[in-house]
Each structure stands twice: as C-alpha cells, then as structure tokens.
Design a protein that fits this description.
heterodimer; A: 106 residues; mainly alpha; two-stranded antiparallel ribbon; 72% helix; B: 827 residues; 67% helix; globular; binds protoporphyrin IX containing FE; binds copper (II) ion; transmembrane helix (chain A); transmembrane (chain A); membrane (chain A)
C-alpha cells in the first residue's frame, strides 16, 4: 500500500490545493473581502500566497520523492512516483496561474 | 494425480449448478463476467435502437415521427442507457472475466459481491426498461438539471425512475470497484510484484479507484434531488436557500471523471492488444502507468468546464480552462507510447488491429475538438449545439466502442475456444467506420451552423436539411455494421471450428489455460518472474496443468486461492471462497424492493426492506465464522502461509477500507454542498439557525470517544485471551450515544421544508445516525460471534473490521455534530 500511496501523493496534493484555492476564491468573493496590503488588493495577496504555498509544498514532495528513491522496493515505483511528482508540480503551477493575472470576482 | 484427474476434481469443486438454475446461484467470475457482458451488450442494442429513432426523427424537417414529449424520453434514455447501462457495465464485465486470469489467480476477492453487483445492475436496468415500455421514461436529458427536473417542472414519475434506478445501478458499480481494487492489490499470482503486473491491471486499478471517488457525488446528488422531489426539502430551489447550480457541481464532479472511467479501461485494452498485434512489447510501461495516474487525478479538476456558461467568475473559468488543456499531455504520452510501439514492431492487420486503427483516427479528432471546447470563448459559441454531441461521440465511440470491439475480437477465441472462419468482421468494420464518420462529421458541421442539441425538429428555412439527412443515412450504415458484428460473433460462438490455444501468441497469463476457461482458471497457480510469463516459458501451461505450481492438490472440496503482499507479490495468506449460493440474488431483490418502495411511495415497505437487507447481510458474514483455529496451510512448492481467518487484516478488512473510501467521498461531497449553499446560494442567511444543545453535542462526542476506545479495549482483551465483553459493551454504549446525538440534531433542525439550511442539517444528521446505527449493529454482531466461539486470539479479523467502521462512524459523526452546532453559533 505504501508504494501505491507514494505514486498518488503528488497528484493528490495537487487536487487538494486546486480545490482549496478554488474554494478560497469562492469565499473571498462570497464575503466581499476588500482592503489592501502594500498597494495590492488583499484578496489578490491572499490568493497569491496560497498559490506560492501550494508550489512550495509540491516542490517539497518532489524533493522528498527523489531523496528517498533508494528506499522504495523497486526502481519502477521510484520512477513512476517521480513522474507523478513532476506532474503534480507542473499541474499546480499551470492550473493555478490565473490567480496572478485575472480579475478575482465577476 | 494426472492432469485429467486434477481437472475433474477441481471442476467438481468449482462448478456452478448445471443448467439455467446455475445462473441464479453462481458466484464464479467466469459466469458472472459473461453475464455482465451479455447484458451490457443487450443494453448497447437498446441504446443503439434509440439512437436510430433519434436520427430518424432528425432526418427531415417538420418530422412527425415522434412528438416532443416522446423525443425527450428517447434522447434521454439513449444517453442514460449508453453511459450507465452499457459503458460502465462493459468495463465491469470485462474486468470481472479477465482480471483473475491475467493476474494468475482463481477468482476475484469477493465472489458473492460480484453476484450481488450483477443482480443490482440487472434489476435496476430492468426498472428503467419498464419505464420506457410504459412511456414514462426519464425525459430531462441524461444530466437531469434542476429546476427542469424538480417536482414543480417535472411532476411525473419519469424523473424518479432516473434518480432511483440509476442509484440502484450505481450500487453495482461501487461493488465491482471495491472488488476490482482489492483483487488487483492482493489477489495476484505469487511473484507478481507491482512492476510485473500486466498493464491492463494498472488501468483497471486506476479506473476502479476513480469509480470509488467519482460516483459518490452523483449518488449524493440523486439522493438530494429525490428527497427534494418526494418530501420538499429545497436543496436546489433558489428562493428557499437552495441552488440549482449545486446539482451541476455534483453531477459534473462525477460526470467528467466518468468520461475517463470509460476511456481508461479501453486504453488498457489497447495497451494489451496493440503490442501483440505488432509482435513486440509495450513501449514505456512506466510512462504509461504514470500518465494514467496523472490523467485520473487531473480529470477530477475539470468538472467546471461543463459549466462555462453558467456565470461563474472569470478566475474560476480560467482555473478549469487551464486544467482542461493540461489533460492533453498525459493523453498525448499514451498515444505516443502506442505509436512508438507500432513503430518498433511489425503491425499485422488482424481484425483487432483494424479496430485499434479506427480508435486512433476517431479519438484523435475527438481530442482535438475537445481542446477546442476547453477554450472558453469557443465554448460559448458551441455550447449546447450539435457540435458538442458530435465531439462527445468522437470521444466515447472512438475512445470506448472501437477499443472494446478490438478487445472482443481479441479475446473471442478465449471466450469460446474457437477460431474465426468468415471475413464478415472486416466488412462490418468498414461499415462501422464509414457510417460513424459520416454521421458525426456532419453533426459538427450542422452544429456550427447553429443547430442546438436536443431539439425535436427544425424548419427547412434553417438550412440544415441536407446535412441532417446525410448524418441519418450515415447512422443507418453504422447500425448495419454493428448488426453484422453481432452476427459475426454469434456465428463464431455457435458454429466455428475448434481453435488452438493462444492463437495470437500473446505473452500474458490468461492464455496459459485451456479455452474456454475452466471454472477454476488454473489447475495450479504460477510463480511469476517477468511481465511476459508465457513468452519466457512456453511450457508454462503444461507445468500448471500437471500441478507444478501452487495449490496444485485439490483438498477437502474447498475453493482455494492465495493472496500476496501488495508491493512484492510474496504469498501472504490462503483464502477459501464461499461456494454457490442464492443469497446475492435474494439480497439484490430485497434491495430492489427498497428502491421500488421509494419509487412508488409505498413508504411502509421501506423499513421492511431495510430490515431484510440487514438480516441478509448478517447471514452473509455470519457464515464466514469458524469454530476452530486454522493451522498454517501448505500451498505447494515447499511453502506454508496462514489461513485468511487467522490474520489481523483479512480480505474483509481491505474491502471495508475501500468501501469507506467511497463513503468518505460521499460525505465530503455533502460537506462541500453545505459550504457551497452557505457561501454561494442566494437565499441566505436562513430565517432561523439551529439552537445548539450542549447536552446532545457533548453526549455525542463522548460517545465517539467511547466507541473507538471500546473497540480498542475489546481487541486488547481478545489478544490477551480474555473475554472482550467490557470493551464491546463500552463500544456499543458509545455508538448508541452518538446515534442519540445525531437523532436529536435531526429533530432540532429548523423547519427542513422551509429552507435548505434545515434540510442540509437533517441530511447530515441522518448520515451520522445511519452510520452510528450501522456501527452499533456491527458491535452486536461481533459480540454474537464471540459468544458462539467464532473468535479467538488467532481468529481476530472481525475485531479490526468492526473497529474500522466504528472509527469511521465516530469520525464522520463528530464532524456532523460540530459543523451543525458551529453553524448554530454563527449569528
Ligand atoms: C450507436 C451509434 C450512436 C448514434 C447514431 C448516436 C446518436 C446520438 C445523437 C444523434 C444524439 C443527440 C440527440 C439530440 O441532441 O437530440 C446523441 C446523444 C447522446 N449520445 Fe449517442 N449515439 C450513438 C452512440 C453513443 C454511445 C456509444 C454513447 C456513450 C457511450 C452515446 C452517448 C450519448 C449521450 C450521453 C448523449 C446526450 C444525451 C442527452 O443530450 O441527454 N451515444 N446520440
Ligand atoms: Cu468534461
């Protein structure tokens, strides 16, 4: 089971981060959050912070997968889990990129 | 013992009852896989017939063939039958028939569950067919959007048939998914580590996991909508705190993954068949596995692309548009791996290969139009036009029907043990290919000219007449082709001559047995050392038939197989399967009674049916008990393993764990629904919030703790050899206290028919109550087993299962209680 979880870890994290940021955006709009920090609107800052956190987490997972690859049972599982680890990272960067650019509500 | 003698003795042990009576009591995957496939193809014909009616109606303007009411039923039932009664069950049937053979074992993990799933499917499908015969079939489109499908706008029973019938059928999908997951992870030939697993196993595993997490949102949606229709709880009514968009979220949270649930098994067939047709091995095994996993996960982040036109904020649209374009990458990886495989090998144009080429052409076009509609501005133009129906058929027909035809022709000699002698199949393929492309290329075009989907008629001035006629002619060519394939298969099964074993010279284990397959599959189980066992050792079939593998000696009339450690494939325990029984069909019938009572609003039979199901379930698991401690069992080749009843985590534990995964997704979707309504739905805040009751909350939470502690105490007592009565009593008291807490929440929920808030609390409380009651029942069951002497320090698996369920009930129950009471504090 450990091996199976290892393979699924990074995409699962992506799914969680993707849903969380989408939910966060919904909350920010639903509650009409306003204000600003250092000239930037507050909702934007919050969203970008979440985006950065998600990327950092993915990098952490990927680093962990690469570092511990010697410990897994087979080279195959090591390879597949690193491939899905990269998938998680790329998917996070690509699919949440809109937080940096687009209008937040409406 | 010689091979023939062994065959006779094993057949006697594994055979189902002779004649048609055997259909009702068989639990063997050979029989049930065939029954699934035949039934699914029956539904394919029904769906195809409905498609012909659609095309007949649209062939000419001002068609008087069917009125709008009937036409609505026809296209709805076409979509429903194809998606729920053909595509998913075909995967289930194929997996049920093939997996044990490919994985080198004798049956799936839970044979009676296979049978139960089949009968739920058969009965649920029959319900939908009956509705069609009476002209009261569902008619709001296959995705049943409210408000169109709510009680105000669709007052008849039509919609209820969909909601209740499909939920009934879904039970079989969940059952099959649990079964397939556990079988692939645990029921493989010794030595078959994860990297030696045939690629079809990976695809089936990923698909099954997707069913476990993709179907629960739909089941939740159906439950909520049916509850709204029957009892007026306004989950989807905007003026009472509901939101019809909630349905769209729940539906597409299922609906998009569903597309991949359909495509991935087909891709598994291609990855299996293609290398054999090209006389080589699959290129990039690891890449393909990674791509399939990536595809599975990404597909859960796309659902909103079906809702681009519902007024969602731009940023939300952009998230899902980006994610939608992303799936092209893993799909591309697979396609390139296949092209590379063809490049490296020497493709031979046998019939399966033709269908695979048909797949390539069609699916690639479907993928391209898919990327087009993933781009928001284009989708705004094409939404709800025939362009979309054309796109979805390129993906579904190209990505599923062609590969399945390839698979059928590939495994046909395995099913029947015969060889083809006509060339009918080649002509049929040509007709299907041409017919399909004529029909649906034309529909792209007419869609761009503005023809909306789901319209029953149009006028000559629209300028769509010629194209529609061409499309309809194409569809009749297609139908003719499919009929010829059917004829070809029938002729083959009835009259072709005996073929030789392994006609394709395939490398995988399913060809290492005689064909048609005997009920026990392998006379002895192989030890696998590579991904192509049959290629490396051509003498393997003989070796196995003469009992050279594991479990080569039939003993005590028991149906035996082995399970292995998930990663390494080391033999782990010996499993003894239950024999033929009518329990599954009876239980499916009582389950059907439950659904039928809801449908016909005979509410007094609902509790009866529930008690019936509970009683049968009790009997089901009771029979697994043993009075004496089993000793370690010799399995041949000088090895000994423990009996499955003498381990901490037996098959039942694994089954429960994956069933609870599905259940947790259901619960998560329910929480999502609550949060969604609260933040997005217009009619909030509700007129009245819950008045928190500290007594009920604290009692419930204490009950949660007591339940979990009690079960752990019981396990400890049992391990020490003491009677676990203290622990079980504590666990029972705890689960009952939790049940009380949830019941009191249901009673105190503010007027559930007035506002979605109260309605949601009622459902949350009901969920908690149901699981607490279930956990209590399981604790009582455990106590009964202890009293009858079915447990001991060795026979302890029932404790870990009950513990799992009490923990789950406690976990979800405390979230229910906390969420409800916190919401009460919010104002
Ligand atoms: C056998 C050949 C088939 C033909 C000729 C055909 C034809 C059609 C047509 C013309 C429509 C549009 C109805 C309308 O918009 O008024 C339609 C809808 C649909 N078809 Fe098919 N189809 C075929 C096979 C399939 C298959 C194999 C699947 C799925 C596995 C499928 C799934 C659907 C779905 C989901 C819809 C949408 C229904 C709705 O709008 O509610 N079809 N089909
Ligand atoms: Cu989709």
């Amino acid at each position: 089971m450990r091996d199976v979880v290892r393979i699924m870890l990074a995409p699962l994290l992506w799914l969680a981060a993707f849903s969380a940021v989408y939910g966060l955006q919904g909350l920010l709009c639903g509650h009409d959050v306003t204000g600003s920090i250092a000239g930037l609107p507050l909702p934007r800052v919050i969203l970008i912070a979440a985006y950065g956190l998600a990327i950092a987490l993915q990098c952490g997972v990927l680093a962990w997968l690469c570092r511990t690859r010697a410990a897994v049972g087979s080279r195959f599982v090591g390879f597949v889990s690193r491939a899905t680890g990269w998938t998680g990272l790329v998917a996070t960067i690509w699919s949440l990129f809109p937080v940096a650019l687009l209008s937040i509500c409406g | 013992m010689n091979a023939l003698e062994r065959h006779r003795r094993l057949s006697a042990i594994w055979a189902s009852e002779p004649g048609f009576r055997g259909w009702f009591s068989t639990v063997n995957h050979n029989d049930l896989g065939r029954m699934f496939l035949v039934t699914a193809f029956f539904f394919f014909l029904v769906g195809g017939l409905l498609a012909m009616l659609i095309r007949a109606q649209l062939a000419t303007p001002h068609s008087a063939f069917a009125g709008p009411e009937i036409y609505n039923q026809i296209f709805t039932m076409h979509g429903v039958v194809m998606m729920f009664l053909f595509a998913i069950p075909t995967f289930e049937g194929l997996a049920i028939y093939l997996l044990p053979k490919i994985l080198g074992t004798r049956d799936l993990a839970f044979p009676r569950l296979t049978a139960y799933g089949y009968w739920c499917y058969a009965f649920g499908g029959t319900m939908l067919l009956v509705s069609m015969l009476f002209g009261i079939a569902p008619d709001s489109g296959w995705f049943m959007y409210p408000p169109l499908s709510d009680a105000i706008h669709s007052p008849g029973i039509n919609t209820d048939f969909w909601l209740i019938g499909i939920t009934f059928v879904e039970i079989s999908a969940i059952a099959a998914a649990v079964e397939i997951t556990v079988s692939i992870l645990k029921y493989r030939a010794p030595g078959m580590s994860l990297d030696k697993m045939p690629i079809f196993g990976w695809y089936a595993l990923i698909t099954a996991l997707m069913i476990l997490t993709g179907f629960p949102p739909l089941i939740l949606g159906s439950v909520l909508l049916e509850v709204e229709r029957a009892f007026g709880l306004p989950f989807f009514q905007a003026d009472m705190g509901g939101d019809s968009l909630l349905w769209q979220h729940l539906f597409w949270l299922f609906g998009h993954p569903e597309v991949y649930i359909i495509f991935l098994p087909a891709a598994g067939v291609i990855s299996t068949v293609l290398p054999v047709m090209c006389r080589t091995t699959l290129l990039g095994y690891g890449w393909i596995v990674a791509a399939a996993v990536a595809l599975a996960f990404l597909s859960f982040g796309l659902w909103v692309h079906h809702m681009f036109t519902t007024g969602i904020p731009h940023m939300g649209l952009a998230f899902f548009s980006a994610a939608s374009t992303l799936v092209a990458v893993p799909t591309g990886v697979q396609i390139f791996a296949w092209i590379g495989t063809m490049w490296r090998g020497r493709p031979e144009l046998h019939l399966p290969m033709l269908h695979i080429l048909g797949f390539f052409v069609t699916f690639v076009i479907g993928g391209l139009t898919g990327v087009m509609v993933a781009v928001v501005p284009f989708d705004w133009q094409a939404h709800d036009t025939a362009f979309i129906t054309a796109h979805l058929h390129y993906v579904l027909f190209g990505g599923f029907v062609f590969p399945i035809f390839a698979g059928i022709y590939y495994w046909l000699p395995h099913f029947t043990g015969r060889r083809r002698f006509f060339r009918l199949g080649e002509i049929a393929f040509a007709l299907v290919f041409v017919g399909f492309h004529v029909t649906f290329l034309a529909m792209h075009w007419v869609g761009l000219l503005g023809q909306r989907r789901r319209i029953s008629t149009y006028t000559p001035e629209d300028g769509w007449t010629a194209i529609n006629l061409i499309s309809s002619v194409g569809s009749f060519i297609l139908a003719f082709g499919i009929a010829m394939i059917l004829l070809d298969v029938l002729l083959h099964a009835l009259s072709a001559g005996r073929g030789r074993r392994n006609p394709w010279k395939a490398p995988s284990l399913e060809w290492a047995m005689m064909t048609p397959a005997p009920a026990y599959n392998f006379a002895s189980l192989p030890h696998v050392t590579s991904r192509a066992p049959l290629e490396n050792d051509p003498g393997l079939p003989l070796h196995l038939a003469t009992g050279g593998g594991y479990l080569g000696t039939p003993r005590d009339g028991r149906r035996e197989t082995l399970t292995v450690d998930i990663a390494s494939g080391r033999p782990e325990m010996l499993v003894v399967y239950p024999a033929n029984t009518r329990l599954p069909i009876v239980m499916a019938a009582i389950t059907g009674l439950f659904f039928l009572s809801l449908l016909l609003k005979f509410y007094w039979t609902v509790p009866l049916a529930l008690v019936g199901v509970a009683a049968l379930a009790w009997r089901w698991v009771w029979g697994l008990g043993m009075q004496e401690d089993p000793v370690p069992q010799p399995i041949g080749c000088g090895l000994e393993v423990p009996h499955a009843a003498a381990v901490e985590r037996g098959p039942g534990w694994w089954g429960s764990a994956f069933l609870l995964t599905a259940n947790a997704t259901f619960f998560g979707s329910l929480l999502f629904g609550f949060a969604f309504l609260w933040t997005v739905a217009p009619g909030w805040p509700p007129p009245e919030w819950l008045t928190p009751s500290w007594g009920a909350l604290i009692l419930g939470l204490v009950g949660v703790a007591a339940g979990s502690l009690g079960m752990r105490l019981a396990m400890r007592q049992n391990r020490r050899g003491a009677a676990p009565s203290m622990g079980l009593a504590l666990a029972l008291a705890g689960t009952l206290a939790l049940a009380y807490g949830c019941a009191s929440l249901m009673l105190r929920a503010p007027a559930p028919t007035e506002h979605a808030y109260g309605a949601t609390l009622l459902v949350l409380g009901g969920y908690g109550l149901f699981h607490a009651a279930l956990a209590a029942l399981m604790v009582v069951f455990t106590a009964a087993q202890v009293r009858r002497g079915f447990t001991s320090r060795t026979r302890r698996s029932v404790f870990s299962i009950t513990c799992l369920w009490t923990d789950y009930a406690g976990f979800t129950g405390s979230i229910v209680l906390l969420a409800a009471h916190l919401s009460g504090l919010s104002p």
